[in-house]
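name: query_chain
kind: protein
chains: 1
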Amino acid sequence: MGSSGPMRDSGAVSTPSTEDRDARVPAADDPAGPPARTAGNPADAVVGLLQALTIESQRFAEVFADAHRLHPTDLSALAHISKAMQGGGALTAGELSRVLVLSTSATTALVDRLQRAGHVERVPDPLDRRRVRVQMTPSAQQLARAFFSRLGLRVRDLLLSYPERDLEFLQDVLGKVVGVARSAADEARADAPGPS
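structure:
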């Protein structure tokens, strides 16, 4: 095992010093690292870092999309389907249409395309056989898990280098940020013209 993981002593995670932790994080002026901190409101700096995280996450996902000839909307659909499955459910085509803000015909074409590629399958709703739900195939789940775990494990390793109280605070803040983002998206969707 390398030294990048958290040190364990008597079953407790020991927290590396700030210098050790910062040595594993890209420098602020590194082109691959986070944007440099600027003078001003710290909240603005955090918003900038969240925007940078979104951009870098999208860039990472685009590698997967390009490798598997997926349109950005296809990738977004798979992300929503995967999230629903992780929660123990599966989306109907109508639900997928709403979250993607697509017309019924465009959603049908998208699901058809993903099904032909072997990424999704239509399955009967166990509670209502008249309804059909869309779920990822086992092979697509395995493929996505193998690719995206590369980033997830690195982020998890980094987070484990922080004290538990810091992670609890971060969880609280990010949970509220997600709520604000979801609310803003819902408001924007309500104000936008409907799909044709």
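note: Helices lie at 18-24, 42-67, 72-86, 93-100, 104-116, 138-159, 164-191.
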